[in-house]
Amino acid sequence: MDDPNFPLWLQATHLINFVLIGILLRSGWEMLTSLPRLWWRNDSKPGTEWLKFTRRELPQEEGVYTSLMDERSASPVFTLPGRKNIGLARHFHGLGVMLWMLNGIVYVALLFGTGLWRRIVPTEWSVFPEAWASLKIYAGLDTPGIEHFQPYDALQMLAYTGVLFVLAPLLIVTGLAMAPAVRSRFPRFVKLLGGHQGARSLHFIAMVLMTLFIVMHVGLVFLVHAEHNLPHMIFGVTDTARYAQAFTIAILTIVVVFASWIGLSYASLLDRPRTQKILVALTEPARRFGLGWMRPRMRDQTAYTEKDLSEFHWTNGLPPTQDESPEWLALRDGGWSDWRLEIGSTLDGSSVTVSLDDLKALPKTEYIAVHTCMQGWSATSRWTGVRLAEVLDLLGPRPEGARYVMITSHGLAQEMWDHRPREPFYTVLDLKMVAEADTILAYERNDRPLDIHLGAPLRLRVESNHGYKMVKWVRSVEWIRDYADYGDGRGGTREDGAMQAFNGVI
Ligand SMILES: Nc1nc2c(c(=O)[nH]1)N[C@H]1C(S)=C(S)[C@@H](COP(=O)(O)O)O[C@H]1N2
Ligand SMILES: [Mo]
């Protein structure tokens, strides 16, 4: 190789990558703690996990246990930000991914632009026998001679190429596949990866391999010819005389980066609503321009068929109890004959009520779709109902100035983030979400009236979003001017409580 030195851009992109990978791993682990189980089965049935990080045994019965109850609290030392904050973790993950991909693009562009790719991308088949020879040396707890590293040996070339062109793209592809925007627009692509659980499990496995690579990559710098490697890494040139200096700088850098990761966790827990606001502002442009164009199309809702229907459906949110809503219980006991949906406008005070039979008389929408909870579980069902837009039309044209629709439940939020008394579960949709053909008020699942625990007699379905938008036991739908005027002003119970983003497409 002509110039064995490391240019500054190589060092800079590596350092940035190190910081960002930490943010991605730590926020990823926080997400995993919110449902510490992995499946290949797409109904996420308890007892069928291939891996779990909890000793808790779950009942096999539906509707007695919510996924929120399975959430575990992690220390801010290990996760970002820790202490059951999946919403914030998801925003940090999004921000981390944006910056990591940007950094990766710069790195790959410069790698090819400068010709340095020849150092790491093998171009001869001999790389395989050479790598095997190196592996045998390492297996004997010995190290290959320095003459093998010019600057990299065959094993390194294979590992670097694999990480860069196989593992990193696999992480991106499986990560994207978990976004509702991608799932509802390109359902066949998600199916190809083994569905939501396949993508989630593969993402996890790729994460483990990436972590192993990083530990070995950094570890070997210190273990194999460190007197050459460390000055090379820190100063860009192999100057063995400056080994002690390089060693000190390397260790200090690692300590500072670890401290910053942990500091970031504690700092973001100080004022969670403020952290949410900053992170959502930083990530919303990417959410909008990256995924916002992927509007769902009804004709794609044919990817799933009868045989994809789930045997099990997780529950998040248990049916209203006597002290939560005696009204809903009385309506249930009356077989829903007195149940009415309130359709209103907070702008002009108008309202109408309709019965379940009125709703069933309206044009019917039916499709098979995959539900994903942002915590990680999924379930496939056939949903039958009436388009929300159609129901709103019963009130007349959209009132002047109405930009959002608020859907409120008979049930209360499972918990409030600041421990104030529980308030009714609600969500807010914007005009685009309302207009989607698969945004419906569903009254049947799998050709039977909705189960009590899944939202009887009427629940919201917004297939382009995660489950947290899909209010169960719906009581009212109302036009509103702005969601800033309701709850904590973030646009829904899970936005308020779990610091989610209003835009739930990812
Ligand atoms: N009323 C009410 N609706 C709710 C919730 C809730 O707690 N209460 N949880 C939401 C969340 S986070 C999810 S993932 C879905 C779960 O729907 P399921 O219980 O029918 O599976 O319901 C949504 N709708
Ligand atoms: Mo959820």
From TrEMBL:
CC per GO annotation: plasma membrane
Gene3D superfamilies assigned: Oxidoreductase, molybdopterin-binding domain, Transmembrane di-heme cytochromes, Chain C
UniProt topology in membrane: Multi-pass membrane protein
Localization (cell): Cell membrane
Residue ranges annotated for the Cytochrome b561 bacterial/Ni-hydrogenase domain, each copy included: 6-236
SUPFAM superfamilies xrefs: Oxidoreductase molybdopterin-binding domain, Transmembrane di-heme cytochromes
InterPro entries (UniProt xref): Cyt_b561_bac/Ni-Hgenase (IPR011577), Di-haem_cyt_TM (IPR016174), OxRdtase_Mopterin-bd_dom (IPR000572), OxRdtase_Mopterin-bd_sf (IPR036374)
Coarse class of the protein's main subcellular location: membrane
Transmembrane domains' residue ranges: 6-25, 92-117, 157-182, 202-226, 246-269
Domain of life: Bacteria
Keyword Nuclease found: no
The entry's keywords: Cell membrane, Membrane, Transmembrane, Transmembrane helix
A GO biological-process term: respiratory electron transport chain
UniProt GO molecular function: electron transfer activity
Classification via Pfam families: Ni_hydr_CYTB, Oxidored_molyb
Keyword Transferase among UniProt keywords: no
Domain (Oxidoreductase molybdopterin-binding) ranges: 336-481
Protein name: Molybdopterin-dependent oxidoreductase
Species, as recorded: Sanguibacter biliveldensis
Phylogenetic placement of the source organism: Bacteria, Bacillati, Actinomycetota, Actinomycetes, Micrococcales
